[in-house]
Specification:
about 0% strand; ADH_Fe_C; Alcohol dehydrogenase
Length: about 55
């Protein structure tokens, strides 16, 4: 392995300090988002971020 953490808790990032909605909204308006073959909903994006914990 190359030592990349699998979870954000391994980086001492606490879930209660993580702004899921802010990051998810910005991910959806990112300039690269329209090039995605699949455009997730806000709820799906939030769920994806929550899986990182």
């Amino acid at each position: 392995t190359v030592g990349i953490p699998k979870k954000l808790t391994e980086l001492d990032i606490k879930e209660e300090e993580f702004d899921f909605e802010y990051l998810s909204k910005n991910a959806l308006i990112d300039a690269c988002a329209p090039g995605n073959p699949f455009m997730p909903t806000l709820e799906e994006t939030i769920a994806l971020y929550k899986e990182l914990f």
